Amino acid sequence: MPFVLTETLLLLTSSFTCGIAVLAARRGDRQQTLTWFTVTYLLGIAFLAMELTEFHHLAAEGNSWHRSGFLSAFFMLVGTHGLHITSGLIWLKVLVTKIWRGDMGRHTIRKLTMFSLFWHFWT
What we know:
86% of the residues lie in helices and 0% in strands. By secondary structure, it is mainly α. The chain has one domain (2-122): Cytochrome c oxidase, subunit III, four-helix bundle (Four Helix Bundle (Hemerythrin (Met), subunit A)). Helix 1 packs antiparallel against helix 2, helix 1 packs antiparallel against helix 4 and helix 2 (30-60) runs antiparallel to helix 3 (69-100). The protein is elongated.
């Protein structure tokens, strides 16, 4: 159970750091925005690494999606969540690059807010 608890805490913490980053962006604090979004990104990467490790471990024990309807649904649901996190990480990398290059305009902050809603949706 501690493995799953760690995954959950990573995601909850990433949701918190994402919110702090958006608040920093609205204040116009570029450095804090970059810092907190970088932390969010690293937490997302750590979560994905743990999720892939969990999938590998389950499959190695013979518990793949071929074994039962439950495991098929489990892998589909959790895999879809992983796809959501991966998409969010790609989006976040694009936004952080914009900020790093100096774009902290109104449109970028709006995009950061939309990203934040996306990130919170399944985390």
